[in-house]
Amino acid sequence: MPLLLRTVSLYGYRLGGNRQQIAEAAASKVRAFQKAKRQVEDVERLAQLLKTTLVNRKERWKLFQRAITARARVQFMWMLSERSFRGRLLANHKEKKLDLVVKTDPTKVGRGREAKTLSGGEKSFSTICLLLSLWDAMGAPVRCLDEFDVFMDSVNREVSMRKMIEAARYSIGKQFVLITPGSMGSVNSSHDVKIIK
Question: Which of 72, 80, 134, 175 is the most exposed place for a label (fewest CB within 10 A)?
Answer without folding.
Answer: 175
